Amino acid sequence: MNLISCRNTLVIIALAGIISGCATRGVKNPSGVPVTELRPDERGFVAGTGIESQDLVAVSDKMVRSILSTPDIANAASAPRVVLDPVVNETRFPINKEIFLSRIQAELNSRARGRVVFLARDRMAALEKERQMKQAGQVTSSSDPNVVEFRGADYFLTGKLQGMSTRTSGGTSDYILYTFQLINARTSEIVWEDSAEIKKQGLEDAAYR
Amino acid sequence: MLVSRAKPIRSREIAASRRSQASLRWSAVLLAGALALMAAGCQTTPAQPRLVRTGNLLVDGPNAIQNGPARDRVLWEYRTAAADLRAGDFARARGYLDDALQSQDLAFGKNKGARQARGYFHAEAKKTFLGEPYERSMAYIYRGILYWMDGEPDNARACFRSAELEDSGAGDNAYAGDWILPDYLDGLATYTLGGDGSAAMQRAQAAAKEVKLPPYNPKANTLVFIEFGPGPTKFATGEYREQLRFLVPHSPVQSAEIKVAGLTVPVAPVDDVGFQATTRGGRVMDHILGNKAVFKSATDTAGNVALLGGLGTAALSRDRTAQGVGLGIALAGLLSKGISAATTPEADTRAWDNLPRYLSFASLPLPPGKHTMTVEFKNAAGQVVSNLTKTITFETRGDGRDKVLFISDQSKTPQTV
Questions:
Q1: CB-count exposure of residue A182 (10 Å: 0-12, 13-18, 19+)
Q2: Parallel/antiparallel/unpaired status of strands B222-230 and B403-408
Q3: Rounded mean pLDDT, A58-80
Q4: Number of A:B CB contacts under 8 A?
Q5: Is residue B161 less than 8 Å (CB to CB) from chain A?
Q6: More exposed terminus of chain A, fewer Cβ within 10 Å: N or C?
């Protein structure tokens, strides 16, 4: 190596150093990210191994289709009255327990066109108060307020979420079994049951393992 | 004539040689400047407003969460949530824990900060802090207590299950998922919800070993979570501070005693957070940091050898080509030492430093109505540490919903919940 080639090498290294040293620090999305609207049944760019909206949509859609094809519902002489009983969560993920049944109820009301009637048991306190005001004559009434007209349930719709989770240096795996049941309120018979299962796995960066 | 012609040639050679040497000196200066810029370019972080600490975590925490580096957000949320729990601000603790746990749950796949932390030229502390397994477990345990406080034992149970899962990746299987209290509470929640709960109770008993855990009391309506003692912190050791270690300070408090409604209930430690921190086993990141330390050492040694050898060659040789080569080798050595200096194998010692040392629990059957509870904390000799005694006033209702109390030796007193 002579002095000139040595000098040229140094100059190249120096220029590379200057360029890399002065390069703008990489900033991801420096201008931000505009609001992105996603379908609730698609997997977004923010995801974990827990219960997410796409699972809620997929599971509740499957349950609605299954309920509507049940003979006790499809062939009922009059619309059966259904009360929601909160879902039991046995997974490792804290969830809003009402959300599955809320979506199933909304979808059934939308698609069943009167073949199923849900009773608003979660509004009983307000309903009782209204009835008492009618009985006291504080508000008008279109029927005799002393006659009990609150309907009893023909069926209870309920469900259970159960999970199996594994965590090793190879990643985290979560399996969740969603089971829903329609229970005859008079006989305690389970007239319909269906399930869905979802398994997810993920691996954290080695810096976290 | 020949002589007269030879002299200009000789002087031209000398002049050319001087220009070359000057050029080389400038190149060396340029190289040094470039190295400095490279180092600066690699090290610089966006200017953050300097955080002014008041020493009050309830002020510093929200300030750091709002204005501090994003990579430390979860760390400050953990710390502030613990401080809020002790101050009785459960709503704010809930919010911080939810945000921190969401960050934990979504930490899969590519992560720029984590990738950089694995690189040779970025410290591990460059990654977004999520905490070691014992810290993540504690976040879930605290959130579980808050869910139970809100009348959601099934979501509390979910948190206790996640707390155990966070601990299940321990290097030594003997210490995997060996928290006692989360399993015990998992079973209790199941029992409260009408289930059996015996499987979780058996796991808790297995982890507790010779200590006999109390059976679930069907009449208990008041759950008391107690924590005491200073928790573990982290430090780095090794030639380049590449090894993560845990410091578990001595706890002046070793037990507690609850006095309420004519009952006196001794409370012994159930879980030792220091034990959980120190039995985690090796991390994948430890290997990465070890490799970084080896790289730093090797490039430093190579730099020393090249620098000394090159400078020695340049100084001792009378041949200009050999001098140039020697100088080139010396510069390569300098470059190697620069690379070594820029390599950062230091372990990340950011820690949730206001965790307790011991966790404990008691369930009490209390009649409906207003109660005032006194919790005394005791040292190893069984004497009451007087300045730590807490008083809490609360009301139990006969509606089947558990009254959940959280008491730390650092809690404010008196409290009404």
A1: buried
A2: parallel
A3: 90
A4: 158
A5: yes
A6: N
Interface of A with B in 149-168 (CB under 8 A): 165-168
List the single residue in B147, B168, B328 with the smallest CB-CB distance to A6.
B328
Higher pLDDT, B29 or A51: A51
Q: What is the pTM of this model?
A: 0.82
**Cβ–Cβ of B118/A6 closer than 8 Å?**
no
Q: What is the DSSP string of B132-156?
A: -HHHHHHHHHHHHHHHHHTT-HHHH
| Local structure of B336: helix, strand or coil | helix
Q: Is the ipTM of this complex over 0.85?
A: no
SS3 of residue B396 by DSSP:
strand
Residue B331: closest C-alpha in chain A: A10
DSSP state of B384: B
Shortest distance, CA A175 to any CA of chain B (angstroms): 14
Q: Is the dihedral of CA B185, B190, B192, B197 positive or negative?
A: negative
Whether residues B158 and A89 touch (CB distance < 8 A) is answered with yes
* Chain A nearest C-alpha distance from B332 (Å): 10
Give residues 86 to 105 of A whose Cβ lies within 8 Å of B.
88-95, 97
What integer is the mean pLDDT of B58-73? 94
- Min Cα distance B164 → chain A (Å) is 10
Does B106 contact A at CB distance below 8 Å? Answer: yes
Nearest to B169 by CA among A167, A165, A171: A167
Give yes or no for a contact between B311 and B326, defined as CB atoms under 8 angstroms apart. Answer: yes
Given this model, what pLDDT does residue A5 score?
57
d(CA B360, CA B354): 17
Instruction: Choose the weakest-confidence range: A24-38, A79-93, A135-149.
Output: A24-38
How far CA B356 is from CA of A146, B63, B141, B211, B250, in Å, comes to: 59, 23, 12, 21, 11
Residue of B nearest to A14 (CA): B31
In this prediction, residue B99 carries a pLDDT of: 95
Distances (CA, A) of B17 to B20, B134, B311, B324, B331: 5, 66, 19, 11, 19
B231-278 residue pLDDT tens: 999 999 999 999 999 999 999 999 999 999 999 999 999 999 999 999
Phi, psi dihedrals of residue B270, rounded to the nearest 5°: -105, -50
What is the spatial distance between Cα B410 and Cα A5, in angstroms, rounded to a whole number?
69
Beta strands in B180-317 (DSSP E): 222-230, 233-237, 243-247, 255-260, 263-267, 271-272
Q: Is B24 on the interface with A (CB under 8 A)?
A: yes
CA dist., res. A40 & res. A43, Å (int): 8
pLDDT band at B156 (very low <50, low <70, confident <90, very high): very high
Q: Which residues have a Cβ under 8 Å from the Cβ of A24 and sit 6 or more positions away?
A: none
Question: At CA B116, angle to CA A208 and CA B35, rounded to 5?
Answer: 150
Structure tokens at B288: 């990465």
Give the DSSP H/E element, type plus range, for residue B372: strand B369-378
Residue B226 binned pLDDT confidence (cut-offs 50, 70, 90): very high
